[in-house]
Amino acid sequence: MELSRPSKLGRRAFSALAGTTVLGLALGGSVSSAALPASGAPGPVPTGPPPGPPGADGRRHRIGLDRYSLLVDGRRLALWSGELHPFRLPSPSLWRDVLQKMRAYGHNAVSVRLAWNQHSPAPGSYDFTGVRDLDLFLRTAAECGLYVVLHPGPHIGADVDAGGLPGWLTTVGARARTTDAAYLRHADEWLGRVNEIAAPHQFTRGTGTVLLYRADTPGRADLDHVRRRLRADGIEVPLLHADSPLAWEEPEATRDAAEARRVHFDRLARGSTLHNVRMAFGGTSWGWLPAPSAPSPTYDPTAAIDEARRPTAKLAPLHQLGQLLRHVPDFARMTEAPAVRAADARIRVRHLANPDTGAHAYVLRNDSAADVTSTLPMGGSDVEVTVPARDAKLLATGLHLGSGRRLAYATVQPMLSLSVGKLDVAAFVGRAGETAHLVLDCPNEPWPTRLDEEAAWTFDHGKLHVMVPLKEDRLTRVRVRSGETDRTLLLLFADDAASLRLWPYETPSGRILVRGPELLREAALDGAVVRLTGDTVAERELEVWAPPGITDVTWNGERVQSGLGRALSLMTVWPLPGVPDLVLPALDGWRRRTENFESEPDYGDEGWTVADRRTSHSTTPVPDGQPVLFADDYGFHYGDVWYRGRLTGASGLESVSLSYGTGAHGLLMAWLDGEPLGSHRPGGAGDGKGTWTATADFRLPRPLGARGDEDGGPVLSVLVRRTQHGQDAYRAARGLTSARFEGAAPDVRWRLIGAAAPDPVRGPLNHGGLYGERHGWHLPGHDDGAWEPGSPAGAPAADRRQGVTWYRTTFRLDVPPEIDASVGLVLDGSPDRDPRVQVFLNGWNMGEYVGGGTDAPHTFVLPNGILRTRAAANTLALAVLSDGGTAPDLGPVRLALLGSAAGGVPVRPVASPGRRRG
Q1: What secondary structure does DSSP assign to 566-619, as a single string?
Q2: Angle formed at CA 667 by CA 715 and CA 833, multiple of 5 degrees
Q3: 783 exposed, middle or buried (CB, 10 Å; 0-12, 13-18, 19+)?
Q4: Given 123, 351, 732, 887, which residue has the most CB atoms within 10 angstroms?
């Protein structure tokens, strides 16, 4: 279930309940931490400037809410949060990169989930170092000027193995997400460790920016327990839960820009000011992290910032809405207004109004398959508007655009309104190809100036009409002056592409607005100089609107020649340089080695775990008369598991039936005395809870002959992939569940082995139980000099062996330090082959590739930090599981440049030891 849902109270009922009292979201349910109107008088907090960008400023802060919005120190805050999972970006340096991009694209908060299983390899064992450094992440978010909404679960969903619960929880008899004492003992310990780190970063203390805390509270009893737990740990920021008065809503992922507009404008139309984009950045479900519900390494390919940290087409509407909520405070206190109807009923309209400012908002939605043009009553006029098919628009009337200027209406969306010195700037956005029509109330005739050739205007009966055809990636500027004020109004009109190069930024010395580069990361005013850092891809003009007295501009530490332009901005004389071309090396020098030593009858398995348990905490029944074979019960929670069963009294054996449970892309392989019996994959859609069960029936070519017990009996070897847990039915068995025999009734003594001790740097979900993993074949520095030459794209056609083949190579990159290059590994695959491939870069498991069908090819994003880009060697290892029907040939394996920019952030190498310690 979702952790928060819309309040059961309607707006009218909630208004009656709230009255004019500001409600608290304090842990105990009191209003002691709520912010009151600045005057102390009763009544709603009026519309006004939002609080400034958050930071660890050393001052105490108050957080509250009323029926409209959050209140921070008595000011209304429309929260525009984007979700980011730090555990899906295993390079702490890149956290800053994505957080800076989120802030630049309009977010004022980041929603963070923490995966318990990433931090806890065993009961009582916790690790918050390296790629799991929560303290570092929270510091970085504060330095980037973002509030934090913290969600440590314990259950987080998020398409993570077991919903984030650790694998060992399956074996301790704890019923998760209940008030079961065994579960609460472990869950409290987890939350206690998180809270120990998070409490010093609370915004209320002035030592960080943690603003809200989300809790996994399926029931009232759970909520009461969590409240007591958090209070004892010093957590004082508001607690969001299923029955919070302000609902934390999480719309499902949207596929494109049009759907993103429909979804988020609809939430705005319902009065929501607690917005969250899931996902702002999806990232990579590396290692054995992904749940069966989303087994691909790429998590949410529809995210606004893609896995390679590049902006996508869906980002424009989110950027525009985020800047609107930040820079037009009217939208922090909107209430339902009298119904308005378009002449064409295919356009549905929601009408909102701000009781303080008189501003009105109109959310127009067209769910039909055709563009619809209709008239709509706005600002006292019938206005012709066009809403594209399956799209939405947000229009406004009555907005105050600086001193003395009021918007009568516009057919394009407002994006921002801000003042820079004696200049008022208002930006409006629409789709390329449409004509923007904006009307200003002007009692006296103004003096407009066209700064770009596209604009035209007329003045009629106290209204200035401005018309601008919106062109692709083109900004149009109109300057408006009048005799009533010495302030100049600058109107900016942009299509989606051009809007993504408009960057407002708030400094302690005043606001600035930057146009041109692909990204503005930071800005600072230093005397007469504005110092900017950011990214460029193509050559770009740089235009800066800054407070009076600013005469010079630097970009990424270098002074750029500039002069004052007609738009009262600083314009660079020469464009900023773009990014130079990069050439990536070919992957060659591959070496190859096969394994499956565990399938040989004389393999020494004396150190393996004996499967001798008779009871289990799993929800899967233990077959009568057989031992527990479930991998979790023996401590093997992630990755592949090997079983070896020594059979006594097997003479006459005709067939073997092996039942097993897996997650997505499951696989079983079996051998008898080293001879392949075959492979099996579960079919069907599973049980709906992320568990697939199947039985593999193998018939022997001929009945097994007699063998003396002194020979030890035949050996049945089984490899099972994989032990992926469902998000809900996390205690369903993984691995073998039972074995049946025909033609004989042998006695079987089972042993099994899985992943070795968790990697102390890479964590418990990095590797499984393959022979190569247990012996470090995936690690840098492993001596593969004795391996035979062989490429994964050129395996011999006759090599149709069942089992595991490893390939290794090294390559070097030399990317200049001023370039941020995102590199991917492309496995083109072949639709007639169906291998399973684990990809390791410098010992880090980047995820699984599944060939065949629609899953081929796949690009693995190699995050900088794990990928050494500065004149350093990288080790690439591939573990290929093939079923014996085809050769372990993957097709071409190559590096691909996914994107590059001049700029970026400094990247520190992520620790990638070549051997395990301890």
Answers
A1: TTSSEEESSPBP-PPP--PPP----EEEE--GGGSTT---TTSEE------SSS
A2: 115
A3: exposed
A4: 732
Short-list 805, 889, 736, 866, CA closest to 287: 866
Which residues, 6 or more positions from 258, have their beta carbon under 8 angstroms from its beta carbon? 388, 390, 391, 392
Neighbours of 655 (CB within 10 A): 15
For residue 805, give the H/E element and its range.
strand 802-814
Model pTM greater than 0.85?
yes
Q: Are 422 and 486 in contact (CB under 8 A)?
A: yes
Q: Which two tokens stand for residue 454?
A: 């596209």
Helix (H) or strand (E) holding 491, with range, is: strand 485-495
Beta bridge partners of 476: 493
| Degrees, nearest 5: CA angle 738-742-746 | 70
Q: What are 465-478's pLDDT values in tens digits? A: 999 999 999 999 99
Residue 793 · residue 835 · CB < 8 Å: no
CB neighbours of 608 closer than 8 A, spacing ≥ 6? 642, 644, 751, 752, 753
pLDDT bucket at 854, cuts 50 / 70 / 90: low
Dig out the tokens for 757 from the structure. 């001790």
**What is the 8-class DSSP label of residue 528?**
T
pLDDT (tens digit per residue) in 307-366? 999 999 899 999 999 999 999 999 999 999 999 999 999 999 999 999 999 999 999 999
Give φ, ψ of 139 to 5 degrees. Answer: -65, -45
Which pair of tokens denotes residue 150? 């913290």
The span from the CA of 243 to the CA of 248, in Å, is 10
Angle at 894 between CA 892 and CA 895, to 5 degrees: 165
Smallest CA-to-CA distance from 330 within 240, 439, 406, 385 is with 406
Contacts of 419 (CB under 8 A, 6+ apart): 402, 425, 487, 511
857 upstream amide cis, omega within 30 of 0: yes
Q: Is the dihedral of CA 591, 594, 597, 601 positive or negative?
A: negative
Is 350 in contact with 337 (CB distance < 8 Å)? no
Half-sphere exposure of 467 (CA within 13 A, CB side): 6
Beta strands 147-151 and 109-113, pairing class: parallel
Question: Residue 669: is the preceding peptide bond cis (ω within 30°)?
Answer: no
What does DSSP say about strands 406-410 and 435-441: parallel, antiparallel, or unpaired? antiparallel
Alpha-carbon span 395 to 393, nearest angstrom: 6
Give the Cα separation of 538 and 500 in Å (integer). 14
**Contact status, residue 64 vs residue 23, Cβ threshold 8 Å:** yes
Identify the CA nearest to 452 among candidates 543, 561, 539: 543
Gyration radius from the chain CA atoms: 31
Instruction: Report pLDDT for 418.
Output: 95
End-to-end alpha carbon distance in the chain:
40
